[in-house]
Specification:
Two copies of one chain form a homodimer.
Chain A lengths: L2 H7 L7 H12 L6 E7 L14 E2 L3 H10 L4 H8 L12 H9 L7 E4 L5 E2 L6 E6 H32 L4 E3 L10 H11 L3 E2 L2 H7 L9 H9 L4 H11 L5 E3 L5 H18 L6 E4 L4 H14 L6 E4 L5 H18 L3 H6 L1 E5 L1 H4 L10 E9 L2 E4 L16 E7 L5 E8 L9 E5 L7 E5 L5 E4 L2 E5 L2 E2 L6 H13 L3 H4 L8 E4 L1 H16 L2
Parallel strand pairs in A: 6-7, 6-11, 8-9, 9-10, 10-11, 15-21
Antiparallel strand pairs in A: 1-5, 1-12, 2-4, 3-5, 3-19, 12-13, 14-15, 14-18, 16-17, 19-20
Helix pairs in contact in A: 2-6, 4-5, 6-7, 6-13, 9-10, 10-11, 11-12, 12-13
Enzyme class (chains A, B): ligase
Function (chains A, B): Catalyzes the first step in the biosynthesis of NAD from nicotinic acid, the ATP-dependent synthesis of beta-nicotinate D-ribonucleotide from nicotinate and 5-phospho-D-ribose 1-phosphate.
GO molecular function (chains A, B): glycosyltransferase activity; nicotinate phosphoribosyltransferase activity
Amino acid sequence: MRPEQRRIAEGILFTDQYQLSMAQLYFRHGLHEQTAQFDHFFRRNPDYGMHAAGYCVTAGLEWLLDWMEMVRFTDDDVAQLRMQRDRAGGQLFGDDFLAYLRATDGFAGLSLRAIPEGRVVHPNAPLTTVRGPLAYAQILETALLNQLNYQTLIATKAARIRDVSHAAPVLEFGLRRGQDRGANAGTRAALIGGADFTSNVGLSSTLGLAPKGTHAHALVQVFLALGYSELDAFKAYAEVYPDDCLLLVDTVDTLGSGLPNAIKVFEQLRAKGHRPVGIRLDSGDLAYLAIHAAMMLDQAGFPDTTIVLSSDLDELVIWQIQTQIGAEAAHAGADADAILKRLVYGVGTRLVTSHGEGSLGGVYKLVAMHERDEWRPAIKLADTAAKLTNPGLKQAWRIYDGRGRATADLVALEHERPDEQEQLCLRHPSDAGLQRQLTRSRLARIEPLLVDVWREGQRVGPRPTLEQMRERRRNDVEALDSGVRRLVNPHIYHVSLTQPLWELKQELLGRLRGGR
Amino acid sequence: MRPEQRRIAEGILFTDQYQLSMAQLYFRHGLHEQTAQFDHFFRRNPDYGMHAAGYCVTAGLEWLLDWMEMVRFTDDDVAQLRMQRDRAGGQLFGDDFLAYLRATDGFAGLSLRAIPEGRVVHPNAPLTTVRGPLAYAQILETALLNQLNYQTLIATKAARIRDVSHAAPVLEFGLRRGQDRGANAGTRAALIGGADFTSNVGLSSTLGLAPKGTHAHALVQVFLALGYSELDAFKAYAEVYPDDCLLLVDTVDTLGSGLPNAIKVFEQLRAKGHRPVGIRLDSGDLAYLAIHAAMMLDQAGFPDTTIVLSSDLDELVIWQIQTQIGAEAAHAGADADAILKRLVYGVGTRLVTSHGEGSLGGVYKLVAMHERDEWRPAIKLADTAAKLTNPGLKQAWRIYDGRGRATADLVALEHERPDEQEQLCLRHPSDAGLQRQLTRSRLARIEPLLVDVWREGQRVGPRPTLEQMRERRRNDVEALDSGVRRLVNPHIYHVSLTQPLWELKQELLGRLRGGR
């Protein structure tokens, strides 16, 4: 895309046509400046097929706010809209409406609350709430979902990979399999969710992080094509990077050629006072090769070198590799724990595309309209009870049990203070027969989750650092029950409604279903 | 991401660290300006699980060339690289190497050939070849794969959806489920591959295409929340868009409320001389609802209105809907063909994420190095014969049989002219026992596929229009055997090697495996 096209395609017209059609309708009916509230939430955790998530990690908010700060309807944008025609050949968007768009300051009139990036989040509790003029709250939908759906999906996958990798470093390698520049969003979300480093040079630079990566098969191929050997390629690498020597050993034959050659080079480095870093395995039976590579490296006196594994890894494959090493290492005469401790996982395609479930179905639903000094709650009917929305202005609370574990999220009306009540009633969101009573004094903590993030055209509070977002994720994942963290068939974490919200929902349902 | 960060993350540092590590190594060893040739290809068609592709449609090239035209190592980029440290605390990239990067004009030294966008392509034949200074050819890998992998994946999915939809319009709705601004690449690829229009306003504008979309559930919800009815919302819509009235009828109750209300509004429009466009169904049993909606619309005298279907559609779901309508329409007293003819398919999430197979494994492999006036072919060994690369400088040819059907792609060495040979020998790429003989005079046509697209820092020839790329796709899909186009279990299209290429491959294999 050419730069002048990019300005159009990545500005405020990065939206769906119906948002603008509706905005003009609101404008024509005098509703465009009426205050509305929308909730953003997702309905279920990713289900990867063989395995499923028991929680999500939210991400994408700061980039959304950056975009909101930057965009407004420019002359170019308005000119594009003015060219649109209706079926009768007339101008689809009227000049008065276009003048309104041009005169307003983008998303400055909106207020956003959100659960901060890096936090663990659950289905059906609002992750983001948007309040403000109906027209702009509507136009924001597409970009908000685009940013938060994808980054949350990837931060979630990364958190699972982080969890199964225990203390082992996780490197993100997915740039070549992402969507155009959107791959950078995947890298960022992966770093929030659990990847320690990435191969993505540009994005690392913007975060002050060291990008990771050594060499590809191409290096060895170049040397072979020129009549040299794999050993020559390794020597050349060690010469240029004597203190960062990590060699990819599977270009020719991993155990027959790559390992012996790497060890020769490591010995030369050691003789010169350098400390070799390790090897990378990118094909074949990674568990088997890791065991035998470890033994060969040990035997040669390099027990501290790392072994980087890559090639279509994800949380399930890593788990399988660990299990296989656990089962087979002793047979081969090796120490499984020592091998597992030297592993590094390089995760690319399956992380950046969220293998098994390539999208998060986050939605953005109207929950209230303000009219004549009063909020009028809105609900969206659906064919199944589970798809009904929760109406009204709300806050989400997290309840920690006596051990300090997160035991449920409670969605309440905005004015409620569940943290000040001694008895809490947790209603199932759709099943009238299910409820749970909790006694406040037996709980460790009740914490509100949504905080102000955008007001009057500006973000509220400082931009969080990567480390702060990671800290939130670590703390929140740590506070989950181990059953919820389980890779396969996780426990269902409860997201409940307060009694007043439950009653409001029933009342609206009755009214709507009665008064069709 | 802030704009100053975006300049870093989307410029020439949009690459993997190892490309730069290798580039510096080549620089240190005096290899950086030596001419190399890399091939880009993919190894297998997407397999979506329940169904699989029998071919791909290539896309992404023009955007890659736009990026190549724009980027080079700036002072800012070099400053970022200068900050990187090795493990001993020294500067990872030397000042001499950084000066070289800064002094060179980006990708100006490279030459690219490619199969033009929109064309049908097959596994293991080169889609793109890159020739030029080793350092820059290496650095290009990541961005090239990023652009071509994703857009080809989506153009392929769109072509399948196009094929199963026959003459029905296909609308792309996936912006909210793509990866940040990368979603625009998905929209573009979908339009090349088979979507007629998109809801994406910005991208449509850059292509001079009318974006499509009317209203969401939110419109009806706003009216309900304010004490009005679904009918009021529809009337409001018809008032603003009398000639573009397409109503979403499933917010409350599709057949019980949405359809009757839509029909009332349509009658009012008709009375005023307008022609209502149709309805959209976004939930429930779409086939059942389409049949009954069609009957209600017919009965009310609106047989020409369209019915837009959306909600997690993909090629398999569309096929199922068509089958169900075919089986059930007559029972309900309706004409299945007439219903199918008024359908429009809105495809979002499952198109932009390529549901079932979220990535295309395109790779970029060294195939030759130029030294002392001679090309030295390179090969990449692999644990399976199917993963071996094809060495040397090559051209891909498409062979059309007597009926004008594409019958095989033939990968040849660059100097070969299979179009001038009377007898063609097609060798299986890995199985020595398999070959096919073709007689030139019995064939309709033999066509070279790779054309020059980039030379000396500039694209070769004019930028193709969207319509030209679509035309290529239509012609190429049309020329495929119906078995190859089949949604489920497609025929395997043959990609063969010429005898000289086969011999070169065997020779290199023997040399490498012998001389490890």
